[in-house]
Automatic annotation (TrEMBL):
It comes from the Bacteria. SMART domains: Aamy. One of its GO terms (biological process) is oligosaccharide catabolic process. InterPro entries: GH, GH13_cat_dom, Glyco_hydro_b, O16G_dom_2. This is Alpha-glucosidase. Residues 23-415 form the Glycosyl hydrolase family 13 catalytic domain. It holds the Pfam family Alpha-amylase. CDD domains: AmyAc_OligoGlu.
């Protein structure tokens, strides 16, 4: 059969399983028009960088029309591009260039809430009787005028905001300018699914679904119970946020979502080979919810988990416990892991603050991440080993940081612009005199052009390791089984179609010997780490790894 015809007839529906997805934060990737803010034309220009890494797909954070109160996660038109980022034609060009380079394109759908400037909300809030009066979550106050229940907004304060026209409260899990859509209303479901179809027809290959477990709320508006202090954790909200004091039984995680996700999946399946990854933000039930959403083959293909996005350092025990817990919660499911993104402190700073050799640490972390069972997201700049930027209060943009400053400085420190060329103006990001967030000098010293061609750079190690991974289906789709989980030593096997790849890591600055599991192991090359094995021992220098086939 003709090869071209063959691939057109049978696209790989499973491309997302074990894919490496490169996350682009469009404001900070590349500015093409000199306004100090990144844009779609900039993305197109820089796609060869993504291709040179060997990533399978990009996930582009929101570029839709928005008043930008939450930097695009507050959408006022689901089917258009914000002028700040360009035009719909510019987006078509991103898709065309990505596809030319063999890269899939995933876009970020924010359908739990809209902007308060979305036409739907403007109409909904105009009166209690209008065609969209029930499109958002409205409720009368208690007799004493206070909000209907104790639900909290993640960004601070009550989750209810008062509207003097309707003389009612509306629900917002995030900013007051991000009112929560009422997904219990089938017309709302239809409207958001129409937006999904719109982008599918333009050729996107998949979606990242923002805050997927927030789509439905309890219609009885029951109070969330208090969470015992020992059960609190800061994986999805910083420790200083009282949101962590509640057991979120009623404001999110509602079982009604499962039926909606099936409807959503049916729309995806109208097109060939489309994938979705749902962002499940929950500190108590995250893996359980991920299991529900990715089971049965009729909902999400993947869920994006927060287990490795928390402040707690990445230890061998955390890796093993998380993989085992996911396996139990989601035997048929599939996770998507990340160590960094646009919401958390970059992991080289979050976990490596006291590490002397940050580059070695960054390289090792990349290998741990990319050998997990699951798909993987790499956040722009991670491949350069970038640290968290220190942003002065007067430069802060993120309302979350402004609210909780200085105990929590918000998310600007991981959102500063990409650094391409240390000798160029604004490190090659922009021709503007001022960029929307400042570019730290130490980032500039790690720019792409500085690292490129230097075999021992973090960038070249990412490229090398991604290439190495591509040649080993066990690292992409394999099962995972743990052999050694000690304080700093981690050994696991990934197995697929009769082949096993053993992965051994030393997560410390001291040399480490680990027992070599029984078997006939053939050392693999081309991964860039200096571990060796002899006499039943795996010998690992500081921050190093060893890989073998068996
Ligand atoms: C997600 C996004 C975050 C945004 C929030 C509200 O967690 O990643 O950036 O602020 O949802 O949409």
């Amino acid at each position: 059969m003709n090869a071209v015809f063959d691939s057109a007839a049978a696209p790989d529906k499973d491309w997302w399983r074990g894919a490496v997805i490169y996350q682009i934060y469009p404001r900070s990737f590349q500015d093409s028009n000199g306004d100090g803010i990144g844009d779609l034309k900039g993305i197109t220009a820089r796609l060869p960088h993504v291709a040179s890494l060997g990533a399978d797909a990009i996930w582009i954070s929101p570029f839709f029309t928005s008043p930008m109160k939450d930097f695009g996660y507050d959408v006022s038109d689901y089917t258009d591009v914000d002028p700040m980022f360009g035009t719909i034609g510019d987006f078509d060009a991103v898709i065309a260039e990505a596809h030319r380079l063999g890269i899939k394109v995933m876009i970020d759908l924010v359908i739990s809430h809209t902007s308060d400037q979305h036409a739907w909300f403007v109409e909904s809030r105009s009166s209690r009787i209008n065609a969209k009066s029930d499109w958002y979550v409205w409720s009368d106050p208690k007799p004493d005028g206070t909000p209907p229940n104790n639900w909290l907004s993640i960004f601070g304060g009550s989750a209810w905001a008062w509207d003097p026209t309707r003389m009612q409260y509306y629900l917002h899990n995030f900013l007051t300018s991000q009112p929560d859509l009422n997904m219990h209303n089938p017309h709302v479901q239809e409207a958001v699914l129409d937006a999904v179809r719109f982008w599918l027809k333009r050729g996107v290959d998949g979606f990242r679904l923002d805050t997927i477990n927030f789509y439905f709320h309890d219609q009885h508006l029951r109070d969330n119970p208090a969470l015992a202090p020992e059960r609190r954790n800061a994986s999805t909200a910083p420790a200083v946020n009282p949101y962590n004091f509640q057991d979120h039984l009623y404001d999110k995680n509602q079982p009604d979502n499962l039926e909606f996700l099936k409807r959503f999946r049916a729309v995806l399946d109208e097109f060939p080979a489309i994938a979705a990854v749902g962002e499940v933000g929950d500190s108590q039930y995250g893996l359980e919810i991920a299991g529900q959403y990715t089971s049965g083959g009729d909902k999400m293909q993947m869920c994006y988990a927060f287990e490795f996005l928390a402040p707690e350092p990445l230890t061998p025990t955390l890796v093993a416990d998380t993989q085992k817990a996911f396996q139990e919660a989601a035997p048929e499911g599939w996770a998507c892991w990340a160590f960094s993104n646009h919401d958390v402190v970059r992991h080289v700073s979050r976990w490596g603050a006291t590490v002397a050799d940050r580059a070695a640490f960054a390289k090792l972390m990349a290998a741990v991440l990319m050998t997990q069972r699951g798909s993987v997201c790499i956040y722009q700049g991670e491949e350069l080993g970038l640290t968290e930027a220190d942003i002065a209060f007067e430069d802060l943009q993120d309302p979350y940081g402004i609210q909780f400053w200085p105990e929590f400085k918000g998310r600007d420190g991981c959102r500063t612009p990409m650094v391409w060329d240390s000798l160029a103006k604004q490190s090659g990001f922009s021709a503007a005199d001022k960029t929307w967030l400042p570019i730290p000098v130490e980032h500039s010293l790690n720019a792409v052009h500085v690292q490129e061609g230097h075999e021992d750079s973090v960038l070249e190690q990412y490229r090398r390791f991604l290439h190495f991974r591509r040649t080993l289906p066990a690292l992409i789709k394999g099962e995972i089984a743990f052999h050694t989980v000690s304080e700093t030593g981690l050994v696991y096997a990934r197995s697929f179609a009769g082949e096993t790849v053993l992965c051994a890591f030393n997560i410390s600055a001291e040399p480490l010997d680990l027992p070599l599991p029984d078997g006939d192991w053939q050392a693999l090359e081309g991964h860039g780490f200096a571990g060796t094995a002899e006499g039943g021992k795996i010998r690992l220098p500081a921050w190093s790894a060893w890989f073998a086939r068996g």
